[in-house]
Amino acid sequence: MTVQPSSPESIPTGMPMERETRYDPPAALTALQTHPLRRIKYYPEGVEGWLATGHAESRAILADPRFASGEPFVHSPTEMPHIFVAFSQQAPPGFFIFDDPPEHTRLRRKVAGVFTVKRLKKLEPHIAHIVDQRIAALREAGPGADLVSQFALPVPSLVICEMLGVPYADRDQFERDSAAMIDLSASVEERNEAMGRVLAYIHQLIPRIRANPGSDMLSALVADPDLSDAEAAGIGLLLLVAGHETTANMLGLGALSLLEHPEQLAQLRSNPDLMPTAVEELLRYLTVAHNGIMRVAKEDTEVNGHLIRAGEHVTVALQTANRDPAQFDQPDKLDFDRDPRGHLAFGHGLHQCVGQQLARIEMVIGLGKLLEAFPQLRLAVPVEDIPLRSDMAIYGVHSMPVEW
After folding, report:
1. Quick one: 27-403 is in which CATH superfamily?
2. Positions of the chain with pLDDT lower than 70, given as ranges
3. What does the DSSP assignment read for 298-323?
């Protein structure tokens, strides 16, 4: 094995998060792609690890079982933002994205069957009905209505609530705490407290579900003899939060990017059948999971000629991996004529997003019906006044007033 030396440049501290434009990764992060796998300091006091910005390197790390996701990052930050410190140190039982096999395999299997293409195909008419309802509510609210709170957030929230068996009437509580869980400006303690509130909420649903079970996912989890109540609640927490945050932000930011790319918008309006491909390209182009995925090497592992030692942490920057010119021609262009397959917006490997097919369906139906219902859809405020979610682990827009 020929091991390449680390980058001859100075070792950067942290992963750049400050964006200069609405849709592109931070320029300082893109600049680091000159060395697609490089040393990085996690904190100023010199705790070092690795940063993967290239597509091939990111894919290799995410697919390699020698990189674990279940070990917490034990160093406490001093001055750095909390972007590298997950709440995995306090993740509850059942929150399987921080587990590794065999525990990850056991828990993921409990829900994977619900998210198959075949099962979700049967849900499409009902998802379309939910989208129609939200379009009617948006129209009733009138010009100036917020596309995020009236449409982008309620669509996936309603869908996942119905699938889980969580009362949608309680959405204000769990949506507020879900947002707090991924607020990068909050302390780790504040994010953990928010997670604890959502978890407590799901726990208090369990006695009612046990007394009056339904055909929903939480009823199946609670009735599963292989799962404790704590594991059932932890799985429910994961699906509830992940089931609406990412898709809601893709719907909002996706709509905004279409309004700012009139040629691509016109292409979609003239050829609605292009929507599935357009959704894949929007997923690649926008990559709303913008704060990185952390892994730790379980043993000495060579990636692209670099030796990553056992115990060293690696952060995978999905947003630059999806803008890698070695993988995608003219990667900074939103192009509905390209084949965007192979993007890493949903991650890769055994931890790839279990709900990715549901997200795709919600986006195809949601954006398709939105464009059909409002042929003259446009922003009601200058685009510079749209507040961006640069402060959140899931990127997007906080609000988006529109008219038609």
Report:
1. Cytochrome P450 (1.10.630.10)
2. 1-9, 43-46, 70-90
3. SS-EEETTEEEPTT-EEEE-HHHHTT
